[in-house]
Amino acid sequence: MTTVRVELDQRAYDIRIGAGLLGRDTFADVAQPKARALIVTNTTVAPLYAQALQQALEPHFAEVLQCVLPDGEQYKDWPTLNRIFDALLERQCDRKTTLFALGGGVIGDMTGFAAACYMRGVPFVQVPTTLLAQVDSSVGGKTAINHPLGKNMIGAFYQPRLVVADVETLRTLPPREVSAGLAEIIKHGAIADAEFFGWLETHMERLRALEHDAVVHAVRRSCEIKAAVVAQDETESGLRAILNFGHTFGHAIEAGMGYGQWLHGEAVGAGMVIAAGVSERLGLLDPASAVRLQELVRRAGLPVEAPALPLQRYLDLMQVDKKNDAGNVRFVLLQGLGGAVLRAAPQDLVTSSLLAHGAIRDASPAMSGPGSPASRTAGSLAA
Amino acid sequence: MTTVRVELDQRAYDIRIGAGLLGRDTFADVAQPKARALIVTNTTVAPLYAQALQQALEPHFAEVLQCVLPDGEQYKDWPTLNRIFDALLERQCDRKTTLFALGGGVIGDMTGFAAACYMRGVPFVQVPTTLLAQVDSSVGGKTAINHPLGKNMIGAFYQPRLVVADVETLRTLPPREVSAGLAEIIKHGAIADAEFFGWLETHMERLRALEHDAVVHAVRRSCEIKAAVVAQDETESGLRAILNFGHTFGHAIEAGMGYGQWLHGEAVGAGMVIAAGVSERLGLLDPASAVRLQELVRRAGLPVEAPALPLQRYLDLMQVDKKNDAGNVRFVLLQGLGGAVLRAAPQDLVTSSLLAHGAIRDASPAMSGPGSPASRTAGSLAA
Asked: Could you tell me which of A180, A18, A189, A152 has the C-alpha nearest to residue A76?
């Protein structure tokens, strides 16, 4: 087992990474022998790991309850969140109740937000069982639910007491979700660590095969990079925004396709390629590095083209994004591999990169169907 | 205009108290000329004061929007909260949008919680227009909505940037709501300041008549007491609980009657009398002081008896209260007038005080109707 510390003063916490952590006494630090625990999980994960976590927690709590939610991004909404509150209130759970998020990013985001709100805040622990959650969403305290008009629009910054990433749980993950997790790992290399990016180029096949040492290294290095950024800017007033590399475009893809059609990591994969395209067009990134990024995304099993939606739809969807700063859309861009900057980009360069990577050029104000080859020509666009 | 400072380090803020503040340039400190403001108010307050606030804010913001909610505690729920999110997202409001809560405690609690959650936190300002909100709920950062199984169960600690208490707005307040606000003023004297309690005994009639100098003094002294407590314990890990004097019983009354039947302040009025009864039975409060409290509550126009519900219903309702600490219900009790302690109380003393102040003794396990005189005998109860 290896440990990464997230340094946030009184809210500092450990991320424990290793194999077989659900079967060991990993949870003694958060024990509350007189209080209850509530495991929040979903119908896919519950049959696999809920029993193991239940047994691991029972020695440390007066009672361990479970709340099993439906599985999927489309359930990251208020009615489903409210089922957690129902479970807590039906059993008259008090302020010392600890919530355990057992599952992927959706379960982690919802359980964390429920913990932030229940009686104005109860402790919670992340037990991520997907690669994406282990390397990204379980770390840093961003919690939220979706609103019909925007993803993650309703939430809180609320830190867990502990994160336990058992890499053995990844063995039951569909390959598509392994790839989705790799998107965030690639992102961490791209924005902060060129050496790690190179290591990923060397080890991509081993990662996709879930070789233990490779996975532990990639999870640990990702968590270290994210923890260092979060420690400097917990509530995203500045630096933390670099973690959104690929996400402005990615969120637009997810919303444009309808939540749940593309996995978050898939959308981020294509989004990073588009953002690298903008970086290249602004002269921040050399063409060879943009190609390296696209190639690594492709080798991770991720899409490198956005879905074919009208260009204007993408532009509309990006206006409402949270990085929208009083009307000016700023993008996280690469300044060489391993470096990131936050910068407003001219709309023609954004448009050009979108068209180069799959967006459909609108022939007329009316919505056109799938673009003809001519309408999908890449390159610069006259305004 | 007088100012009370709430000392919370980076989150410190001012409470401005005086007459005609909506008509003056009170809001320059929170100006964001490139960002939007959203006034959240209700159908009762909007016709009275929304236009004045709109005009006061327009010089300081790029655009000032309004969201008018239905009026009443029964709307302090998720669907109504979501109307604030709808208003923000339909206009693509970004993270610099400032929310203004114009109204009473319900509007303040909901607007504050919406501000805490929207994009994981946007600034907000309290503009309380009821006495209860001016002396209590607008100060200290407690925000929440109700759940069918409990009041204020879903919320956040989230501080406003500024509180503006214009005492002129109290002139449109129904007398019943003036009395409800006086309950919290009496509470502040009872738990923290015997001299202020004595001042209230002298000035109660002037307060009920809303005489300017008396009201400003009472609002200021209440805010000072509350601010001092909140500054020491923002998230209610200890001391802050004393502000809940009368509230364990009060919340049980509100829930037992159905939210919105009794005003919060009315329930707190009767709740304080019952809590004083428990204090007296524990030997913490002399009988003369308990009588003084009951008399002041009565002179404020507030009920001194709880509504006639079965005793067991009260006991059930108090179990789920937030002050419930791993199964042991603790009460805020008076240790002399002007002092408060947090202590678990034997159930027979709680029962005795409830029966002395209106609860119906249950004759059998089946629910009885309104109690006979015999079943309502006050005094100690054999277990």
From this structure: A152
